[in-house]
Specification:
Length: 245
C-alpha cells in the first residue's frame, strides 16, 4: 500500500472512532445547568428532653414508727414522679417509683419511708441470682431473727397486677406477700436477675436506676431451700423519698 493510501486509511479510522465516542457535553447547555436544584429539606433539631428536678419530701416523723392501725391515706400525687433512695450498709440504691402503675403500693411505700419505718431493718432474704427482700420491721431487732420475714405494718392491702409490667430484668421493685393477693404490707423485694415467672402474680411498683451493683454486693443469706447458716444480713439504714417539682 502506498504512503498516500495509508494516510487516507488512518484518517478514516480516526473519523470512525470519533463517530462512536459519546458527544461532548456543553456545560452551558447541560440539564444540570438549566434545571434548578431544589435543596433537601432540613429537619429541625429535636427538642432537648426536659430536665427533671426532684426534691426530698418532708418527713412525717422524726423517729421510726413501726406499727399502724390502718392503711395510710393518700399522700402522693399519681401525676407526679417519685424516686426512692435506699441507703444501705453497702451503698445507695436509687429507684424510680411507678405511681401510675401501682398507686396504692407507691403511696404505701412513701408513707412508711416518711415515717422512718424502714430505718434499721435488714435485707433478711437475699437469694443469689434471684432477688433481695427487706421491709420487715421485726428484722430491726436481732433478738427476733427467728421471726424475720413474718412482720408487717399492722395492716394489709391487695396486689395491683397490671398486664405488660413484668419482672423481666434485674432491678425490678415488687411487693412481697404471702399466699393471699390481699396480704401485702411493708415487705418488698428487688430482682437481681430476670424473674419473669413472677409476672402477673406480684405487684411491680418501681425500677432501679442507679446502684444495681450495691444490690449485687448484699450478703447472700438464703437459698431456695432455706436460710444459709451463719450468713449475715445487710442493713437498710433509711429511705429518702424524692418528689418531682
Amino acid at each position: 500500500m502506498s504512503r498516500r493510501a495509508l494516510i487516507a486509511a488512518s484518517v478514516l479510522l480516526g473519523a470512525a472512532l470519533v463517530a462512536c465516542a459519546p458527544a461532548a457535553t456543553n456545560p452551558a447547555t447541560s440539564p444540570a445547568a438549566t434545571t434548578p436544584v431544589t435543596p433537601a429539606p432540613v429537619s429541625p433539631a429535636p427538642a432537648p428532653a426536659p430536665v427533671l428536678s426532684f426534691q426530698p419530701m418532708k418527713e412525717l416523723t422524726q423517729a421510726p414508727v413501726r406499727s399502724f392501725s390502718s392503711a395510710p391515706a393518700q399522700i402522693i400525687d399519681p401525676n407526679k414522679r417519685y424516686r426512692a433512695v435506699l441507703k444501705t450498709s453497702q451503698g445507695d440504691v436509687t429507684l424510680d417509683l411507678y405511681p401510675k402503675v401501682a398507686p396504692v403500693a407507691v403511696n404505701n411505700f412513701v408513707f412508711l419511708a416518711l415515717n422512718h419505718f424502714y430505718d434499721g431493718t435488714r435485707f433478711h432474704r437475699v437469694i443469689d441470682g434471684f432477688m433481695a427482700q427487706g421491709g420487715d420491721p421485726l428484722s430491726a431487732d436481732p433478738a427476733q431473727q427467728a421471726r424475720w420475714g413474718t412482720g408487717g405494718p399492722g395492716y394489709q392491702f391487695s396486689a395491683e397486677l397490671v398486664s405488660g409490667v413484668r419482672f423481666d430484668r434485674a432491678g425490678v421493685l415488687g411487693m412481697a406477700r404471702s399466699q393471699s393477693l390481699s396480704s401485702q404490707g411493708s415487705q418488698f423485694f428487688i430482682t437481681v436477675a430476670p424473674a419473669d415467672f413472677l409476672s402477673g402474680n406480684y405487684t411491680v411498683f418501681g425500677q432501679v436506676i442507679a446502684g444495681q451493683d450495691v444490690l449485687n454486693r448484699l450478703q447472700r443469706n438464703y437459698t431456695g431451700s432455706g436460710p444459709i447458716a451463719g450468713a449475715g444480713a445487710d442493713t437498710l439504714l433509711g429511705v429518702q423519698i424524692l418528689q418531682e417539682q
